[in-house]
Amino acid sequence: MPNETLSFIQLDRVLGTVFGGAVGDALGAGYEFAQPPEASAIAMRRGRLTGEPAGHWTDDTAMAIGVLRGAARYRTLDTLEAQTAVAQEFHDWYYSHPSDMGRHTARVLGRTSTASEMASVALAVQGEDPDAAGNGSLMRTGPVALSALGDDEQIARTARAISALTHAHPDAQDACVLWSIAIDRAIRLGSLEGPRAGLPQLSPDQRRKWEAWIEEAEQNDPATFNPNGYVVHALQAAWSAIVATHDEADHFGAGLRRAIAIGDDTDTVAAIAGALLGARYGVTAIPYGWRHPLAGWPRDVRGIDLVSLAVRAARGDDRDGWPSVSTMVPAYERFSPRGATYRFAVDEGVIFGDFGALATTTTDAYLSLCRIGVDDRKVPDHEVVWLLDQPGNANAARVLADTADAIAAFRSANKTVFVHCVRAESRTPTVAMAWLIRHQGYEVESAITEVLATMRSAAPDESLLAAVRHLVTNVFDMHHF
Hints:
The chain is mainly alpha-helical. It has helices at about 10-30, 60-75, 80-95, 105-110, 120-130, 150-165, 170-190, 205-220, 230-245, 250-260, 265-280, 290, 305-315, 330, 395-410, 425-440, 445-455, 460-470, 470-475; strands spanning about 340-345, 345-355, 365-370, 380-385, 415-420. It has 2 domains: about 5-315, ADP-ribosylglycohydrolase fold; about 330-475, Alpha-Beta Complex (Protein-Tyrosine Phosphatase, Chain A). It contains 19 helices and 5 strands. Strands 1-2-5-3-4 form a 5-stranded mixed β-sheet. The radius of gyration is 22 Å and the shape is globular. The mean pLDDT is about 95.
């Protein structure tokens, strides 16, 4: 399937792969190598080993971003040039003196002088310790499938090559192949076939071993797979947690919590599980409370940057040049946004409007419900919400509820916030309705009436109005995040 044909839902899952891995990593960072926590008690907290604030990712995501940057820049990972670029990202990260790094990775990177020699150094290190097969390449494999969706052979080839930059052991390479192809299936087909999908890409001997290991993961309690530093056990732990929580209403959140409750290398197992769960359910299944605090190396990368990198890696820029374009002003001229803004008496610290008002409205935080260019960004607290103004959303009610919760979170931090789409016709009004319902005590029909009376530009699509009417009964409670 050509990457250019990716649907809105498939791009939702592309973003989910990247955000899911980062969220799992950050969530697990607070529990590394401690007494296994109760799943129900797990929340974002300060990194146990890194000391970084809650929401900060560790080496897992820092290295995954290196892979993602290479894929975004070259639209492939299947060339020596792209692989060397990824190696350079690893090299730069190593010399940023991170607070957390796997021993095997440190041995390889510490002996690497130039990016072009990294794979050969890794092979030499492997020769000195032939049985070394840690989870350090599996933890970062999430982005590998993005630039080769629909091509199992290319995914397998690149998964092996990216693994071999630091981890040359056959088990490590095979694990990356299996997980990357599982991610491909989740993104393209919305399935959780899992690691079995990639078995045809393994040698017959390795396939037999992995079939047994996968079956073991599916038939045993996730807690069985502690410790999980060995790459096979890490994959088993992540897959077992996903299988064990398959019937949960919030499979994404339940799967991550179960992965972390296994204990031991919690950030890595949760990063692995999160990438696949995110690939299946999309970024729209990941609550704002987990997405927004994400941060780490590189220090200038925020959630809005992850959106851009993921889309560029999987599809490249669209016909309007997004996400690389400097501004979306020319593209939106055909819609004639008027620069309108609207407020509600219940809280005038929240401003709703259209794209035309983005450049002229000054607030502490921004929620863009449409595509924006690189120079259209206003402040670090600027999020892009993945929402269509027509039928075709994965779960419009959930996105509206989550965005309303994001507004409330900004206001609880005493930050003013501007919320906009292109013309403030459909997405912006329905987000306003959701905010009034969830956080200002409005009944559903009263919120709809209030917004339609206040926002003169409002003409909501029926699918989004239906989502508003289903907010109370159709959205699981997000406040526990």
